[in-house]
Amino acid sequence: MNNDRINQLLLDLKDGHMESFDEFYELTKRGVFSVSYQILKNQEEAENVLQDTYLKFLKNLPSIKTDRSCLAYLMQTAKNLSLNTIKRYRRKVDSFDMESVPQEEKKEDDTILEVMKRTLNPKEYQIVLMHCLYDMTHKEIAEALHRPLGSITWAYNNAIKKVREALKDYGYQE
To answer: Which of 10, 75, 143, 146 has the smallest C-beta neighbourhood within 10 Å, fewest atoms?
Structure first.
């Protein structure tokens, strides 16, 4: 990476030459993405943080100091935004309300949810919903519930076995 070129492009951007942004972005995006991905372990979220980092960079462009490393500024911004994403995600999981499960769907979905409620204990029910309804990975669930990944995987697999057995009474076949 050419730091002199990046610094020159920063000066051009500060002078209002926005056509320099494409080259600036191409020279710096890998490092910024890497920081985000290392923290989030999710490509889509890291790409969102990448975009947010450059939006924040452009918004704060007039106040960015040219005597410091611009790349360090971008990476620190990406790190902070990534950590904020994790905090937001944890708040969302902490406020996970078991009663917020949609009740609009009728027939088959209602039967399955009712069987799950009757068959599973509250933790198993929560894990299954987080995985199936909210598309969370077992790793994400483990982090959110502060439990080991193996415990989550084991609880999920046992819960699914229980639900399958219970659904046989309703005529569901595997």
So the answer is: 146
